[in-house]
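User: For a benchmark we're assembling, each entry needs the component sequences followed by a predicted structure for the full assembly. Here are entry 17's components. Please fill in the structure.
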Amino acid sequence: MTQLCATQLSKSYHNYHNSVQAIKHVSLSVATGESVAIIGPSGSGKSTLLNLLGLVIQPDEGHVKLDNLEVSNLSDSKLCRVRNTTFGYVFQDFALLDHLTVYENIRIPLIYRREIPRRTHRQRIRAAAEALGIADKLHRHTDKLSGGERQRVAIARAIACDQSILLADEPTGSLDQDNKDTVMTLLMRLCREKNKSLIIVTHDLTIAQQCDRVVQLQAGHLVAEANYGQ
Amino acid sequence: MSLIRQVLSDLLGELNWVVVYGFVSAMVMMALILISLSYQDVSATDKAMARFESADITICSVQPIPQNVSVAQHDNNTGNSSNETLDQYFSDVFVRGGHGGTYISLPGRLGYQQVYILLGIYAELTPYGLIADTDPVFAVSADLNEHRSDNITLGGDTYPLNTAPAEMDLYHPLYYMGADDPLLQQSLFIFTYDYQTVQRLFPPSEYEELSPDIMMDRFILSGQDDEDIIRLRRVILEQMGAYIGTSTFEEQVMMSSESGVRTHQFYIFFYLGSTFILLGTMLLNLYNILRRKTTDYMTHHLFGATRIWIFGRMLGFALIYQMIPWMSTIYILRINQSTTPFMITTILLGGLIIGVGIVSLVFHSIMRQFSQGFRSE
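Assistant: Structure for entry 17:
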């Protein structure tokens, strides 16, 4: 079943001197539980596409639908709600708040999820941490952790609210080879065991080929697509 | 509840700056209040000094005859003998268009605490600014305003009573009385250019206080030349056996505490300038603290905090951050008995406007940054 459907997305960035069209009429669908890798050279629009799919930024043209519901032009409060309930974000630089502990970082999306009672937060956080193998580090500040551990905290935060779609922008870009393998294994396992969709931006073809499908961007256009799924 | 927790957590993280900002702002407010009170004093004296400066006044003072001056130089200073009487001299200098001026006080006369006679050019050197066709002019002090429409009979003539302005003061480099001086209350001021008028209104036989010594006590000249000064010295030497020393108003200011007034003004402007710079720096610090939290706010917004929530969190921080200076300012105003509803409203409104302004600036910047998306290297 198609969970996320983007149709004819276009996005430009403007500054005082010129205008750059980062994404040009890109259409992409992601099914429930499917993993999709977006590859392409620097400046091809990969991160922009990921931000559009994750409802972080609004397209100039085109639509994004989630479970067949139009979501690309919602009000701020509704967009925040959709982001909170549906999407988990993982970034190359981890985007953690280092003045907070692991526990407090993972808790961030739970703060804004009204349906999940506060008294269940501890249990959920612990469960997410255990799934990522960092349960013994919950009360440490994230700046005291290694790169691989920090990325696992970011992934735990991305699944704390049981979000159904993970968006990862170069999640292994700052890690050594061992940690790269560990993080990718965790992501793919979550995808398959928890039936979560995964959209990952990467330069690394070996990572891309672990996904069910790979799409290639060039100068803002979707130029190629390949299936690697079973 | 979570929003309040977040605001308190933000404040706890910046507790040192909250305290510093609170005390610095309180000190600034205290300094502003004290400067304001001090400036009111300095301002009045400065205006009086400006009137003397613009009239190019020369201060005359009775001095012992200089011992170290040669006979020839002494003759040059005082000129040849003339046997001119003081009455003749005063009649000549104390007229409309004359060069001389003085003021005399008569305590307890005519039913007033003090009667001040401002004679010659001195009649123009007060806040009353007398340049009138009517001479003499009678004015009661502002606290006796209810007598304004009364008349006074003196020297056989009846004169209407005016009211001196509330800021009426009496300035002489050595004898300044400010507007709130008790000696200027319950008083009558008589402005006249003419010495003969004074003689007629206050016959010497009845007013022994109007002696030459008293007339010379606050004697000044304006627009005189060297011959005028020589003549003055000669008359005083022959009639009073005393020597008249002269100094320009600028020289007198340099010698007396009035120079402290001018210096005080410099310190006031310096203090005010540094006060505003310090307060501006602290407000800039608030701006920088909010900017430093950009990643916090953006991450929370990404994971579900609405724009309103983020703005509320920032505004809550900014307003509580200013709570200590507000409370300190109101407390300082209270102990200075200046807590009017207007002052309190101004302080609270001012703080709110500043808080909202700074928060809006940073909030707009953060949302613009968020709209560019998150991206990895």
